[in-house]
Amino acid sequence: MSDASTPAPAGSAPVISTHPLLGVLGVLFGAMTATFTGRLISVGLTDLRGAMHLGVDEASWISTVFNAALMFIGPFSVYLGGLLGPRRVLLACATLFTVISLVLPFAGSLPLLFALLVLAGLSAGTFYPLTLSFVLRNLPPRYVLIGIAAYAMDIVFTTNFANSLEAWFMDHLSWRWIFWNGAAFTPIMMVLIYFGIPWQPLPQPKEGQPRPNWRGFLYASLGFSLFYMALDQGQRLDWLNSGVIVGLIASGAALLLATIVRRLLMPNPLVNFSFLARRNTLLLGCVLICFRFVMLATVVIIPSYLGSVQGYLPLQTGPVLLWVAVPQCLCGILAVYLLKYIDARLILTLGFLLVAIAALMNANLSSAWSGNNFTASQLVMAIGYALSFNAMVGAIILEVFNTGALRRPIDILTFAGFFQTVRLFGGEIGAAFMQHFIPIREQFHSNILGLGIQLGLAPTDDRVIGLTAGVASRSAGLPNAAGRAVEVLTLQIRQQAFTLAITDAFILVACSTICCLVFIACMARVPTQYQQILSAPAVSA
Q1: What is the Cα–Cα distance from 62 to 42, expressed in whole angstroms?
Q2: Residue 19: phi, psi to the nearest 5?
Q3: Can you give the pTM of this predicted structure?
Q4: Which of 176, 195, 363, 455 suits 415 as a labelling partner, its CA being 20 to 30 A distant?
């Protein structure tokens, strides 16, 4: 095994890191930092709006701009990684992200704020695909499961822990730590990557091979980013009734069409799309989209219910979500252990079944539920998330081993860029659908409830009389009390309608797991399992 500081000859086998555990920790910190920053911005959007004196419309673009930049750099990371090597890109982008995170709270104008958010998203967006490519190409086989646990566990954990962390920042420190959190963690990641990922010479194209071209990556990345922005802002701007949304969709479609045309005329040597045209690869992409959708149960649905119906603040919502985050540490270790002996598809099936059970448990909620009522279902959900996500990442890496992609850097970069794009874009499709689904169902239930609650009907009049008596002592006369009683009744109807909409959302999550189980059932069993991989000798340079 060669020393990490010794350059590898051109065309040689992947250099194995002499400090693989440091590389795994670098993966952990990279994925965790990017996830934390995106979630903290989304969760803390109201606090950012107040601290920066922004309007609702202006503030709504903060998370959109940052996440669209993450979307942009996903496919483009394939080009950068192939041109410069993952280590150089990660260290440079981590340095840039640290500096930007430090200065973001001091942005004096909205255009400057958006420009810094774009740079922050572009730099942080490289952490996912390039650190994953390190796990796939440079980690000795005996450490593969550790890499899976580090990469899989911290994404789900940090997603659900962000609410508690943001509330703690606001209660004990400052809103600026929504951005400074990244500046605190990224230097640790840089040190781990510096010592954990070996130095390698600049990749050189083979003789007679066309040189890599950035234009196709630019068109694809920008096209996906515009689609992402349209999805993220669509519900707020009323979708196709907004000229902004129509413009974003039309521009994105034109850029993706240009990408296809350019690919047909001038194939890029850094992308091998034929490698992706495999049954298991495409089905795993669908499974990833399904997983991102079922995660909305804790990311969107429960916080929406607790905030809208029970009036919970982020500080109060955080402990409820921790019932998903904390148990995943132990369950993630269990899932990785099971991967050594059990087919990943079986673990995937069990994990999604548990998610479906937890969603159906939550579908029994009423407007009287508080955070404590979610404890049992959250525990089941945590086990399901840990099993399904670790098994999914394990199945993805198994696909790489079984296709022989480890010997072809172009396939690894293509693979990582594909799943980064699917993760972000597929997740946003699910989030946009859920944001549209809940208001539509709330309106439906409100109309249905309204049909049976009309003034003049005996049950309605009895309810109004009871409410009038309840508020009479705090009202200026009987007519004022009657008016307030009608307002209270209207709010109660809205509360019940929203509760029923949330119930429908949980049922939808449970139904989506059925689609995922169909995808899993269609996956083929791969010949090489983790027992064979773990017993294989490390590759020497």
Answers
A1: 8
A2: -130, 65
A3: 0.84
A4: 195
- Residue pair 505/441 in contact by the 8 Å Cβ criterion: yes
Highest mean pLDDT (candidates 3-7, 35-39, 53-57, 496-500): 496-500
Measuring CA to CA, how many Å separate 347 from each of 81, 384, 390, 525? 32, 9, 9, 13
The 10s digit of each residue's pLDDT in 226-257 is: 999 999 998 889 889 899 999 999 999 999 99
C-alpha 530/C-alpha 342 separation (Å) is: 9
**50: region left, alpha or beta (phi > 0 left; psi from -120 to 50 alpha):** alpha
In the prediction, which pLDDT does 139 show?
Answer: 67
DSSP sequence for 154-203: HHHHHHHHHHHHHHHHHHHS-TTHHHHHHHHHHHHHHHHHHHHS---PPP
Rounded to a whole number of angstroms, the CA Rg of the chain reads 25
Helices (H), ranges, 363-477: 375-403, 409-421, 427-451, 458-471
> How far is it, in rounded angstroms, from Cα 172 to Cα 233?
32
Between residues 142 and 184, which one has the greater pLDDT?
A: 184
The rounded Cα 88 to chain-centroid distance in angstroms is 25
The mean-pLDDT minimum among 77-91, 103-117, 164-178, 511-525 falls in 77-91
Q: Which pLDDT score is estimated for 286?
A: 93
Nearest to 395 by CA among 342, 344, 341, 336: 344
Secondary structure class of 288 (helix, strand, coil)? helix
Which amino acid is present at 224?
Answer: F
Q: Which region holds residue 28: left if phi is over 0, alpha if psi is between -120 and 50, else beta?
A: alpha
Cα angle for residues 307, 310, 311 (degrees, 5° grid): 50
Q: What is the DSSP string of 328-366?
A: HHHHHHHHHHHHTTS-HHHHHHHHHHHHHHHHHHHTT--
Q: What is the DSSP letter of 310?
A: S
Backbone angles phi, psi at 271, to 5 degrees: -130, 135
Phi-psi region of 85 (alpha: psi -120 to 50; beta: other; left: phi over 0): left
